[in-house]
Specification:
homodimer; elongated; mainly alpha
């Protein structure tokens, strides 16, 4: 298909497609004449992924380029591709060689991570977030015995198992990265909402009249 | 204790305490002279709750007044007290008589709610949020078979059971409302972070080198 049809099918304006081509986010089409190129389904899918990264993940173009480079490099494992897609929406970047900053209150979190048998990079942005929240919880006198945090860790494990099962069903590195990103971002809101509904139901059982 | 000591113990400035007294958020102390009153531990605890509602729940004073009135009215059940504390941080208000607006795409969510056996008020703010997210997921082609949403519902149920167990351990309506509010708001961030850690660990198991 020509660029005009690619635009129509994908819903992305021609000017934006040309910008993505210049920046190397979208591979060039097959040249059919000096002024024309032909695009196919792979371009449509790539545009959908870029839109998801921009609109749902709010990622800058430079970060999107990194994610796409990871997807297109067959030497990069899927684990690293997923990290490249998900780390930026957690306030970090996928960089295993970066120095890991000291995190206040990380000891309690690291004990929890060890207890669950989780294998996570110490530079994972979520490790810093979780450690910070734990410190705040202790300040507020919330859950001094750690029972609530353990229940949340159970819940997180259940959710993550579902997330990775959805990634496995996705088929293909590109769609896998898309599902990981969309599922992570949208899942935050959905989990929060479903948790409130489940809370209300449990509260009605316990205290309802 | 006098107001100056109440301020020191609670960390709330005297001017703010006087404002809360005027607005009826904090009960008056026992009058000991025309210009002095004596305060006790119940005032300290009430101030802690107000601070949590303001700082963590970002609630306006009028809404805090509603929460506190519900706590202080022995005819209001604990289920309604928890709703009064948690509904505002979910974008709603506890008002069982309010008309429930039509929600786009609520059918799929209501089927899920029925499948889980959850008992929730149709006006629950989380019901509108969850329905909206489901519509967006379908638009994005995410989880067409509903497997992922079911995994999230399992996770939400597990988290909610932990939340309500923490409320039960709290002891007292005031502290129960505080734990429900703090746990709900802080729990959103913590669940998101723990989920990312569990995802990374599961991804490493499946795809790591």
């Amino acid at each position: 298909m020509r660029v005009s049809e690619l635009s129509r099918v994908s819903g992305v304006p021609v000017a934006t497609i040309k910008y993505y081509l210049r920046e190397g986010l979208l591979p060039r089409g097959e040249t059919t004449s000096p002024n024309q190129a032909r695009y196919d389904e792979t371009h449509v899918r790539r545009l959908q992924l870029i839109r998801a990264l921009v609109e749902v993940g709010s990622m800058p173009v430079a970060v999107i380029k990194e994610v796409l480079d990871a997807i297109d490099d067959p030497d990069v494992g899927l684990h690293e591709v997923l990290g490249a897609a998900v780390y930026p929406v957690s306030g970090g970047r996928m960089d295993c060689d970066a120095e890991v900053p000291e995190i206040d209150g990380a000891a309690e979190l690291d004990a929890l991570i060890a207890e669950r048998g989780w294998h996570v990079h110490p530079g994972a942005p979520a490790r810093a977030t979780a450690a910070e929240v734990l410190v705040r919880m202790r300040e507020l006198g919330l859950d001094p015995e750690g029972t609530l945090v353990r229940a949340w860790a159970d819940a997180a494990e259940r959710a993550a198992a579902g997330d990775l099962a959805a990634v496995e069903r996705a088929g293909g590195r590109e769609r896998a990265a898309e599902v990981a990103l969309l599922g992570t971002v949208i899942g935050d809101t959905m989990l929060g909402a479903l948790r409130r509904l489940a809370q209300e139901s449990r509260s009605a059982e316990l205290y309802g009249s």
